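Friendly challenge for the regulars: who can give me the structure tokens for this chain first? No prize, just bragging rights.
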Amino acid sequence: MELKLKLSEKFGMNNSDNRKLIRECLLVDLKADGYKVVDSAVTNLDFLPTCNEVGISISHTSEIGGYVIGCGVEAVGFDIESTERVSKKLADRIAKSDESYPAPDFFWCAKESAYKMLGSLGKAPAVISDLKIHSWSEESANSVEFKFEGGQGRVWREKTYTLAVAWV
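First reply, four minutes later:
Bragging rights claimed.
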């Protein structure tokens, strides 16, 4: 398995062209890596980007955005959030009563990335709170692995952002 992450301020929602730019850059990266891709399957903003050979997921905040290309995985989900934006109150809104988590931002991003990954397979629950994240395993002070029914992932902090990638 190989995960390729690309982040840029150009992809943030503060840039009115962010959606177009992220898709164009994604297409260039896929072609540069030698994948056979139909341009419109990546650049058409009416649909999620797809490439039969890899998993793809996009996320953005106001200030920054990015994408993950997952090679050797069935599907991938990606989330990025401003760390300070995610409060315990917000995280608790999507938590099951028996769920625990190491930090609100880690939990939020883990759930979002897992939900996106499951959604790309047509297996997402009706609401995100029905998805249970478990088996948290600290990799370092800023990085934690997690599991959920149907996959696994990693969440970490980078500067003022929290990022998570889920895969199966």
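The radius of gyration is 15 Å. The chain has a mean pLDDT of 97. Your move, everyone else.
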